Amino acid sequence: xxxxxxxxxxxxxxxxxxxxxxxxxxxxxxxxxxxxxxxxxxxxxxxxxxxxxxxxxxxxxxxxxxxxxxxxxxxxxxxxxxxxxxxxxxxxxxxxxxxxxxxxxxxxxxxxxxxxxxxxxxxxxxxxxxxxxxxxxxxxxxxxxxxxxxxxxxxxxxxxxxxxxxxxxxxxxxxxxxxxxxxxxxxxxxxxxxxxxxxxxxxxxxxxxxxxxxxxxxxxxxxxxxxxxxxxxxxxxxxxxxxxxxxxxxxxxxxxxxxxxxxxxxxxxxxxxxxxxxxxxxxxxxxxxxxxxxxxxxxxxxxxxxxxxxxxxxxxxxxxxxxxxxxxxxxxxxxxxxxxxxxxxxxxxxxxxxxxxxxxxxxxxxxxxxxxxxxxxxx
Length: 379
Hints:
- By secondary structure, the chain is an alpha/beta fold.
- It has two domains: 5-136, Ribonuclease H-like superfamily/Ribonuclease H (Nucleotidyltransferase, domain 5); 159-375, Phosphoglycerate mutase-like (Rossmann fold, 3-Layer(aba) Sandwich), CATH 3.40.50.1240.
- Helix content is 41%, strand content 21%.
- The strands form two sheets. It has a six-stranded mixed sheet with strand order 8-7-9-6-10-11. Strands 3-2-1-4-5 form a five-stranded mixed sheet, with helices on both faces.
- A hairpin with a 4-residue loop joins strand 1 and strand 2.
- Helix 8 packs parallel to helix 9 and helix 12 (300-317) packs across helix 13.
């Protein structure tokens, strides 16, 4: 389905500000008669303004998926409308990356206009936002009941040690509930990794050493047990690593497109030095600016957008579960960045070995923690 002109109405809310938050977005046809798409999501603990921006982003993404070229955005958030129109400055640091993400999406259309409307005229999106917040609170109630002493007694001692460890977070974090634990496994060795070349969307196979690394990682994961799912990047080196784990665990692998490595474009297959010599100015700036793309490739900010969606999907699909995520350097670093709540400097400073394991946890109340980074003791 493709339409040229659409209306996007979006709304976000937070019960507590900050508190349990959610957003809703709806895409209408140009006459505002037919509903073309709806989006809603619970966000955990967030502010009203963050929820409003997330609603805008979801609405623009839905419009792009429909093939729209002209978008009229209508929101009852004066702040978002004025900031996106360029009349107000963004003073809160937490809103800067969200506004940047919305602007990048908007740049993909021929024209985007923003108009403030009274809340009464934004009832459809408001309803979706409230449904999302209600859903989030219901999930929290269910998880709280599951973690109560009575529920624990009824469950007996059948839970594994790994499941019991996935309970309340470290006391100093304040996170509550059972987290979705992501076991982040980097793929094994390839010829390009031996030669230290940019290896993005190319598809080099694992070397014999890489296959041995995958087998050892699989043995380690099988010993841990209590794995709910295995998901992998679509690229061959990751799938081969994931399939070794799947064979050891007896679990089917699910391919997730958003876990693919960064597209390095024209730098694919080049060494660091070769890329720096080819595009000296761009390469130097790219090393510190996640919004810049390699020539013909994608930016780290664009990788983050798709990885954020993967994280949200995994947490929703496997609440309280342990999920093996087989991927590449940038997506794994990005998930660690999201769990730590830190800036993009982590992408440039953190080292991850081949076939290494890192562990990030995402809690139902919006909290997160990192349990392990670059574990290699099993190799």
